[in-house]
Structure formats: structure tokens, C-alpha cells
Amino acid sequence: MKFTFISVGKKNDSDIENAVADYTKRIGRYFQIEWKLIPTSDVEKEAQVILKNLDSGDFVVILDDKGKEMNTIELAQFIEKRMNASDKRIVFVIGGAYGFHENVYKRANFKWSLSKLTFPHQLVRLILAESLYRAISVIKKEPYHHK
Questions:
Q1: Which residue stretches of 5-101 are H helix?
Q2: What is the pTM of this model?
């Protein structure tokens, strides 16, 4: 299985980027992983670029404040379910400041909310990467997650 992260925005904070790179490396021990950063634009142009980066067989998860919240165990179960469904690639999409165009909503297979709080996009990338690594550690029965 492969994880692809598509994120609208830019890199600003090297400390956050270094932390994202660390979790990306950790996840990479178990799954193929790639990041695609899309420049900020209007919602329609962002949607065109996002949709162009998706394949028909992708399982697409958009991060959306109206999505379903999950704890770490639920996220691990979600990933295991996708693995058992033989999904080749899960694509996690972080939208721009104004959300997603309706065409991205239509293409999404799942809407996930990290929190009811609003975070800067760079921080969302870090929270996403760490959350996925933590869920993978549960799946692999490693001690990173202590519950």
C-alpha cells in the first residue's frame, strides 16, 4: 500500500517541515509514501490540480472540519480495513484556506476531521503524519502508542 499526501499551501517553518520529514521517514519503513504540495490559488484551480493527481482506483480521504473524528485506535482500524480491501493507494488531501471545490467533495471516499479546531496548514501536515505513524505503530504492535 502507498500513502500519498496532497496539501495546498507552502513550506514556511523549517522546524515543522523537519518534524514532518521525520514522521514521513518513520512511515516509510512500512509503506511507500509521497507528499505533493500544491500552490495556493482559488478553490477551482486547486481542485483541478488535486483531481489531476488522483487515479481512478485511489481511496481518497479529505481532511474536512465536517468529517468524522477518529481516535488512534479507530484510525488504525480504518487503515487496516483499507489494507484488507486491497487498496493500492490512500490519498490524504489537505485543502486550501477556503476548503474544497464541490468536485473534490464528490471524489472523496471519506471525510476525516482531525479536530474541531482550526490549524495552520503546515501544522495539519505534521498532525496528519504523526497521527498516521501512531496508528501504524498500533497495527504493527510497536510501543509508540502507549494505550
A1: 14-27, 43-52, 72-84
A2: 0.95
Within 10 A of 140 (CB to CB), how many other CB atoms are there?
11
What are φ and ψ of residue 61, in 5° steps?
-115, 120
Q: Quick check: is 86 in a domain?
A: yes
| Phi, psi (deg, nearest 5) at residue 104 | -70, -40
What spatial distance separates the first Cα and last Cα of the chain, rounded to whole Å? Answer: 26
Tell me the C-alpha distance between 99 and 26, whole Å. Answer: 29
- Looking at the structure of the chain, the number of domains it has is 1
Which string of DSSP letters, residue by residue, matches 76-133?
HHHHHHHHHTT-SEEEEEE-BTTB--HHHHHH-SEEE-S-SS---HHHHHHHHHHHHH
Closest CA to 110 of 96, 126, 92, 125: 92
Residue 55: give its domain's CATH number: 3.40.1280.10
Quick: pLDDT tens for 2-45: 999 999 988 878 999 999 999 999 999 999 999 999 999 999 99
Place of cell 474544497: 100
Q: For residue 69, what are the domain limits?
A: 37-139
